[in-house]
Amino acid sequence: MAAVPVAFIVVLGFGFWVHDRGLNMDDSTFGLLAAIAIVVISFGIFSALTGIRFWPIVRTFPQSIPRTPYVPRQLSEAEIAYPLDLNMTVSCAHLSPIEKAMRMAGIEVKYQAENIYRPIVRAKCRIDLEQLKRVFALTDNIFYKEAYEPERYQFENPRADIFCLECLKADRARSTIGVLHPDECTPETVWFPASSPSPDATS
User: Fold this and answer.
1) Which of 16, 57, 129, 144 lies 20 to 30 Å (CA to CA) from residue 7?
2) How does 19-33 read in b/e, with b if 16+ C-beta sit within 10 Å?
3) Closest by alpha carbon to 121, among 141, 145, 98, 137?
4) How far apart are CA 33 and CA 183, in angstroms?
């Protein structure tokens, strides 16, 4: 109800403004314009306060942008053959015994497309470092590292890798085997070298 008196005050103020400037307007014309203005302003104030619209909302949509069709990447012969041949290894010569042992132990090992910033091999297991050193007699050139790749907070994007320093610069992708970081593991996660459930697993 407050919309009507507010509209009336606005129109009355406009009338005084016209009169003060000496603009000629006959009473009938002013009365018609004032009535229309009061109705329009009243509905406008009511609509703004209540959210109710008395006119259609015109929406403009940008022209549809054609999507680039997704074309699956062609797998290389090595990527096709890898899951079929457990003896096949794709990491560097220094890490290939570890990669092969993982595959022979029944651990899920995936060969990924080559990327210099990511390991070419990823194994779904957790590393027992002491056992790894003992079983494979690791040299100083091969080491295991757990880390994070923070974007918004410190412990974001955990990753763990077995690196070969000797091949890191020459062939970075093949010089790394990616494994599970402890933060990604559950009590049922398989440990390597011992292909058995975690000691934390419940019986």
Assistant:
1) 57
2) eeeeeeeeeeeeeee
3) 98
4) 73
47's tokens: 């609509």
Encode pLDDT of 94-151 as tens digits.
Answer: 999 999 999 999 999 999 876 666 788 999 999 999 999 999 998 889 999 999 988 8
Tokens of 173: 């992708």
The one-letter amino acid code at 167 reads C
Q: Check if the beta carbon of residue 148 is closer than 8 Å to that of residue 157.
A: yes
Determine the Cα–Cα distance for residues 129 and 111; give it in Å rounded to an integer. 23
Q: Is the pTM of this model over 0.90?
A: no
Residue whose C-alpha is closest to residue 98's, from 128, 65, 74, 68:
128
Which tokens in the block code for residue 178? 């990616």
Evaluate whether 137 touches 121 at the Cβ level (below 8 Å): no
Indicate the domain borders of the chain. Answer: 3-50, 77-197
